[in-house]
Amino acid sequence: MNTDREITFVYYTLNFGPQHPAAHGVLRLVLYLEGEIVIYADPHIGLLHRGTEKLLENKTFLQGLPYFARLDYVSTMSQEHVYCLAVENLVDVEIPKKDSYIRILFLELTRILNHILAVTTHALDVGAMTPFLWCFEEREKILEFCERVSGARMHTSYFRFGGVYSDIPDGLLKDVEAFADNFRIRLLETQLLLNTSRIWQERLGRIGPVDFSYALSYAFTGPLLRSTGINWDLRKHQPYENYDNLYFTIPVGHAGDSYDRFQIRLFEMEESLSLIEQSLKWLLVDEQIWPHDENEFDDFDTKLNFNFKLNMKYSMEALITHFKLYSEGFSVHSEEDYVAAEAPKGEFGVYLETDGTNKPYRCKIRAPGFFHLQGLNYMTKKHLLADVVTVIGTQDIVFGEIDR
Known about the structure:
single chain; alpha+beta
């Protein structure tokens, strides 16, 4: 046997996606491998690009609202909400207190909707099928709640400038209350199933670690940032709506690995259930707190002069007013504004610049997944090929917002 012969390594280039079943969308990831060890990961961004920001600059403010539901199509109401906040800041309006609690209710339902998909499909990628079958039954109930208030399961357009599209239908709040009680049990079952699995712990523990300095330098937000030990949540530190009047805690990790990110999403769902229950306490006593007055109009309608008496509802003046609102829109005279909120995946922001017309002159969207995907090379380097799937699952990326 010749022991002096040099050993040469062959480096492989592997195309991961865009059709790969674990690619989470239209991700094309070029992996440079030494055997099964990842040397370099090169994510290609732009396969789903639709020019959303440029489209928004050619639509009225109201016509642009449905485009946000198509960005992160897993958490649609969170995207609509930030755009509504941005426009409301430009017009300088304050929404009714009841509408604010309705928004919080559906924002937290949306957070659960997102995290159910993130955790269970991640488990499915790794090899655990049972959580997916358990929790998607609960996810279907949330989609039904969205349909009951808006008529649509996913692309709801329920949040509107100045509040919400319509009031809560009869019986829905009681059904949400029953859902919260039942889902807490289902969430505990999922925790017990995965946390006691040795395979699950070994597949996630110490995989894709991120330290806090790297997370800050790459503008990580949401569960990815909090997994590194940084206590940062816009609902607490830059509160909006009525979050500053509600009690909740922020789950924080310490290792910054895939297991921490998984645990944080589970704990965030528990906190969302607490916020839902607190919102329900306010909304279930609707008549005592917010008596209905037919002669009152919300701040948004008043400032834009679109308010008209209910006894004029079927008059020609009311018809003309309605037609002008939905055809011409309204003009905004403020110069610019940036608003960010704590979406399920992280900080989602909208920058609007206006020139005094009924359309935004400039629109820029800050999508959290765009920044997280850039860290994929750092998170997967010197890991095995199978670990790439684990890291992508804990990043919770959706390409509607990345390739906007």
